[in-house]
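Notebook entry, structure prediction.
Reason for the run: the old model in the group folder had no record of what sequence produced it. Starting over properly, with the input documented here first.
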Amino acid sequence: MLLGGRRPTGDLDFSFVTSDRKPALFSMVEAAIAAAAQEAGVAVQYSTDIDRWSQVAIPKEKTKTRFYKRFGPLTIHLLDPKCWAVYKLARYLDSDVEDLLSVLKRQRLSWIALARLCGECLRSSPRSTQLYLFRRQVEHFFKQHGGKVWGKSFKSERAIAVFHRTAKIHSA
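New structure, fully documented this time:
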């Protein structure tokens, strides 16, 4: 919802980093997260490495976050909408599509930028069965939903061509 989604989430996915100088801090943060999740009734999934969430990896130099808020010693950054969209496209549940439609439209994310990042992710991720599925899901999203996000003049063939060119997918 912070990026513009319409539905409240039943889960919260995030990463966090603690100081290497204070190893006990990690355990304290974990306990605080568990308590907050229980109180809020929200399932949480976290990691200290955001790329462990999916077999589709965003190249390190492309992973971006945006500062959101600071609460004392805690600084909150949100995943850049373009990077967030890659993870949503990799999972591609109906709720993910719903989120993508509202967030991409609200954030005015360029289809060219998204197609290029998806292509870079496909090209640079370790080979797995998930990559074929990711490819098909990106293509499906552009074909079935692109016009809803980017308007009547949007051409899915152009977006898919940019995606394929960046991923180095060669048509037979």
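Summary: Residues 82-167 form one domain.
The old model has been moved to the deprecated folder.
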